[in-house]
Design brief:
With about 180 residues, this protein is mainly beta. The protein is built from two helices and 13 strands; from the N terminus they run E-E-E-E-E-E-E-E-E-E-E-E-E-H-H. Belongs to the pectinesterase family.
């Protein structure tokens, strides 16, 4: 179908952990989705949009965690959100308990003042885990963001800022060597 959603890139990983660095991610609707545990470092997210389309469909993430006991989620650190879309949502509650955190992210004015969507299911406001930490730009509006979004403290943000979020010290970096 012309204009329908399609997957441009499918990523699988050992135990669902993913690390993306210095990426340019371009999309329209729910273009970062699924149930993995992903860390996006220093990456630009470009949201393309058509103002004639359904405004509630301009969404970056649809994280698929279904229970708070699942250890999955997305962490965006030192990134930037830009694009041609208007009033985009940082995430929507596609499943019952999504977890998404944006830290040190520069957000252009394209971000909806509420920031996030409960996906027309108000009861999900009690089960989502959405957070922001030291974000900047015209789209970073803590005063108007939805009440179910948490502005994280230093201690609350810390686990989302490090490679251990994706267990990266076990698979991402080579083990240290000791010179003879």
């Amino acid at each position: 179908m012309v204009g329908a959603q399609a997957v441009a890139l499918r990523v699988s990983g050992d135990r669902g952990n993913h690390f993306f660095k210095d990426c340019h991610i371009h999309g329209t609707v729910d273009f970062i989705f699924g149930s993995g545990t992903s860390l996006y470092l220093n990456s630009e997210i470009f949201v393309e949009g058509d103002p004639e389309e359904d405004p509630e469909m301009a969404v970056i993430t649809a994280q698929a965690r279904e229970s708070s006991s699942e250890d999955t989620g997305y962490s965006f650190v030192h990134g930037r959100i830009t694009g041609t879309a208007k009033d985009i949502f940082l995430g929507r509650a596609w499943k019952s308990s999504p977890r998404v955190v944006y830290s040190y992210t520069e957000m252009d004015e394209i971000v909806h003042p509420g920031g996030w969507s409960s996906n027309r299911q108000p009861e999900r406001a009690d089960t989502v885990s959405y957070g922001e930490y030291k974000c900047t730009g015209k789209g970073a509006t803590p005063a108007t963001v939805e009440k179910f979004v948490k502005q994280l403290s230093d201690a609350e943000a810390q686990p989302f800022l490090v490679l251990d979020y994706v267990k990266g010290t076990k698979w991402l970096l080579p083990p240290p060597t000791v010179p003879n």
